[in-house]
Amino acid sequence: MIYIKFPQTSLDTDEHIVLWHATAIQNRNWRSLKNYLNKHLWEPYRKTDIIQKCWYSEMPVPDHFAEDVEHFRPKASAKPLNSSQKKKIANKIGYNVPESPAVSAYPWLEFNHINYRLVTAVTNRGGGKVDSFPILENTNRLTEPQLPSETQEYALLLDPCIEHDASILMILPTGNIMPKANQCQPTTDQYANLPDHWHDEAFDFLRGWVSIVVYQLDFITAIKGRKKAFEDVKKYIKRLERDVNLGLDDNIVDHLEDIKERISMYSTFALAARCALLSYDPAQAISASTGNTTEKLLQQLHRQTLDFERNL
């Protein structure tokens, strides 16, 4: 999962969203928004021929039958975690999941496009999110006509369209996914002062594992895809380091373009690629000078890419 700025004002006049707003209630055809949603990934880069991907898992979408326009907050029934999910998460975090038992729904967001996410069947259908939407215990769900951008709701699922949420997970060289935060449990003080502590490490750790389990981010195909993306970027970095050492400027530019392609938000498994970039160790380079220069180039590329996507 990476941050996807959504919605982007530059796409407010896109023909698909304009037509959809005019016919939404009559047609109820959310699939017609796929192109509009996809544009949020590739339009800023002026790309057209790219593989569509899931906003939760970053897996490629093999065909349109496996692609859903998902209501992040369920329109008809928003349920707590099921017993299987609770058990799996508890095994990861070391304590019982602190979630509210309340069952509700968000019908007033049914036709509000800010609630839509483009996802694949693995993350959204049977075994995946479906109508799960757990919130923290002793907190309240939004009520009509509240909007998530205006009223705080303590959702346990990560949202790729919230920058902090999208920064919580990391990818290992094996392709496995886990929270960046160290294992810890929220304290009584953190619960009592939620607005000040919601982005603390303890809640990041909790929400990271809830999302990994509910979105099925540990799906074997996703693990394999992330592992390959990680290895590909490490390979590009090795070539970059070699040509930095040799002073081959044209090759350096080409290698940086290859890496940029993999870490950009439109690429599948971009988080794995970014984690590979950030794992670079200059101390392992041929020389200190080569390592320092390579590290500086990689950090600059990473910073420029994130700044560009953040400021769309």
Portion in strands: 5-15%
Mean pLDDT value: 95
Oligomer: single chain
Q: Which spans of ≥5 residues are poorly predicted at pLDDT below 50? A: none
The coarse silhouette is globular
Radius of gyration: 20 Å
Instruction: Classify the helix fraction into a percent range.
Output: 40-55%
Give the number of DSSP strands. Answer: 4
Q: Strand order within the widest sheet?
A: 1-2
SSE topology string = HHEHEHEEHHHHHHH
How many domains? The number is 2
Class from secondary-structure proportions: mainly alpha
Number of helices: 11
Please outline the major beta sheet.
2 strands, antiparallel
Distance, first to last CA: 18 Å
Structure characterization notes:
The chain is mainly alpha-helical. It has two domains: 9-214, no CATH class; 220-310, no CATH class. Helices cover 43% and strands 5% of the residues. It is built from eleven helices and four strands; from the N terminus they run H-H-E-H-E-H-E-E-H-H-H-H-H-H-H. It has a two-stranded antiparallel ribbon. Strands 3-4 form a two-stranded antiparallel ribbon. A hairpin with a 5-residue loop joins strand 3 (169-171) and strand 4. Helix 8 runs antiparallel to helix 9 and helix 8 crosses helix 10. The longest helix has 27 residues, at 220-246. It is globular. The model has no long low-confidence stretch (mean pLDDT 95).
